[in-house]
Amino acid sequence: MFERFTEAARAVVKEAVVHAERERAEHVDEGHLLLALLERRGSRGAFVLDALGLADEARRAEIGRALGDARRRAGLSRADTEALAGLGIDVDEIVARVEEAHGVGALAGGRRVGGRRGFTREAKKVLEGSLRVAVLHGDRSIGDEHLLLALVSRGGVAAEVLGGYGVDAGGVERVLYGGDSGRAAG
């Protein structure tokens, strides 16, 4: 499938690996893909993010912090955290206790120094979803815009963070295709 990726999409995947390495993460996750997408310039994905109000460096930094906060919660989304709170489980309290005993970021998995990093199941689903998005729209290659659309279509932490800034699948599709062109399954 990687052979169908455009140069921009390949750059996103490679930069996501760099982000994971920088954090000493065990795996490349969907947040790393989003961080790499946010760094792109001059591509269709970058155009979409800019058109949806994410061109501002301060906003991009806020998104990076929100993804970092999610990693500190072991990758749990706010929706997951709220669901657990409904069961009487205070995730923030658990994170605080773990970090008190083992250090800040202990649940983020930032221990790996070298070696090749695999992709989490969620990140793999984004990559697979990008192929479905491209096919759905009749595109022969997979661009970074397809990665973005797959990312926001499937839910999860990265989609939740983008949603906090008003970025969702419908908005991405409107910018890319001028209207609702169907929903992409991620």
From TrEMBL:
TM region(s), chain numbering: none
Molecular functions (GO terms): peptidase activity
GO BP of this protein: proteolysis
Record PROSITE patterns: CLP_R
InterPro entries on file: Clp_N_dom_sf (IPR036628), Clp_R_N (IPR004176)
Name of the protein described by the UniProt record: Clp protease N-terminal domain-containing protein
UniProt keyword list: Hydrolase, Protease, Repeat
Domain Clp R: 2-182
